[in-house]
Write a sequence for this structure.
C-alpha cells in the first residue's frame, strides 16, 4: 500500500514592510536615490524601516502628485523594495527626513494595512523580466540606446569630453541600462513606470529608446532655436557697434548725423533768404 504523500508546504506569507509613496519619480532596482519625506506617514515609514533589522521598505510611485493621503487606488501596484543606506533630518524643515535608498527588486502590492504611524504592505516579489528577443536584437537595442544617449550628452554639455559609457553601467545588462537611462530622462512618472513594469528586457529597451529619441529631438530643436536667436542678437550687436563707430567718425570730422545736418542746412538757407522781418519772426 502506498504511503500517503506529505501535505504540500503552505506558501509563505510575505513579510509586512513599511510603505513609502513617492511623488514624481520611480525608484528602479539597482539604483540609488535620495528622497525627502515630510508627510507624517512617510516619516513614520522611514523611521520604522530604519529601526528594523534589514532596513527594508517598499517604494511606490503615486499616480497624482497632488494627492497628500494616497490610498491603494492612488498608487501604482508595482513598486520597488528598497534598503535605507542613510537617514537624517532636513535642516530648516521640522520633522522632515532625508533618506538615501537603494532599490533591490520589483514587487507587487495588493493591499495596504495601517499602523499608528505609517502604512504597511505585504509585497510579492516580481520575477526579473525575460529576454523577450534574440541576443542579437538585444545587443542592437542596447547599442542604439548608448549611441542616442551619447548624442544627448553632447547636446546638453557640448564642451565636455565625457563619454556616456563612463556614466552608464558597465555590466552589459540591458535591463540595468534601460533603468539608468530612463531615470536620467526628464519624463513623467507614467513613462518611468512603464519601463519598471516592462515584462521583458527588450520591451524595457524599446521604451527607453522611444523616450530617449524624443528627448534628443527636443534638444536638437532647442539648439536650432538658440542658434538662430544668438545669430540675430549678434547681428543686432554688430549693427549697433557699426552705428556707434560711424557716429564717432562723424564727430571727429566735425560732422553730425544726417538729420541734424539737414536741419542745419535748412536753417542756413532760411537765414540767407531775403524775407520780411514779420515772416522771419
Amino acid at each position: 500500500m502506498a504511503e500517503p504523500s506529505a501535505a504540500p508546504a503552505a506558501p509563505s506569507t510575505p513579510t509586512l514592510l513599511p510603505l513609502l509613496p513617492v511623488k514624481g519619480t520611480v525608484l528602479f532596482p539597482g539604483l540609488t536615490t535620495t528622497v525627502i519625506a515630510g508627510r507624517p506617514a512617510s516619516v513614520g515609514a522611514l523611521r520604522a524601516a530604519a529601526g528594523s533589522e534589514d532596513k527594508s521598505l517598499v517604494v511606490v510611485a503615486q499616480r497624482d502628485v497632488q494627492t497628500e493621503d494616497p490610498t491603494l487606488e492612488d498608487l501604482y501596484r508595482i513598486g520597488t523594495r528598497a534598503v535605507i543606506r542613510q537617514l537624517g533630518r532636513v535642516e530648516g524643515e521640522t520633522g522632515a527626513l532625508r533618506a538615501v535608498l537603494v532599490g533591490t527588486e520589483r514587487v507587487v502590492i495588493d493591499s495596504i494595512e495601517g499602523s499608528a504611524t505609517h502604512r504597511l504592505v505585504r509585497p510579492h516579489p516580481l520575477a526579473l523580466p525575460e529576454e523577450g528577443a534574440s541576443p542579437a536584437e538585444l545587443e542592437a537595442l542596447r547599442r542604439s540606446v548608448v549611441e542616442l544617449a551619447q548624442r544627448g550628452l553632447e547636446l546638453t554639455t557640448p564642451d565636455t569630453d565625457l563619454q556616456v559609457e563612463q556614466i552608464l553601467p558597465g555590466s552589459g545588462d540591458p535591463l540595468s541600462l534601460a533603468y539608468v537611462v530612463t531615470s536620467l530622462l526628464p519624463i513623467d512618472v507614467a513613462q518611468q513606470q512603464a519601463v519598471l513594469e516592462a515584462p521583458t528586457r527588450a520591451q524595457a529597451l524599446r521604451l527607453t529608446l522611444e523616450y530617449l529619441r524624443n528627448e534628443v529631438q527636443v534638444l536638437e530643436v532647442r539648439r536650432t532655436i538658440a542658434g538662430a536667436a544668438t545669430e540675430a542678437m549678434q547681428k543686432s550687436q554688430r549693427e549697433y557697434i557699426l552705428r556707434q563707430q560711424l557716429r564717432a567718425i562723424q564727430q571727429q570730422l566735425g560732422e553730425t548725423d544726417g538729420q541734424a545736418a539737414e536741419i542745419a542746412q535748412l536753417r542756413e538757407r532760411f537765414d540767407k533768404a531775403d524775407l520780411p522781418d514779420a515772416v522771419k519772426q
Q: What stands out?
A: Strands lie at 17-22, 32-37, 56-61, 78-89, 97-108, 113-114, 119-121, 124-125. The helical segments are 40-50, 135-156, 174-184, 189-197, 201-252, 258-272, 277-280.
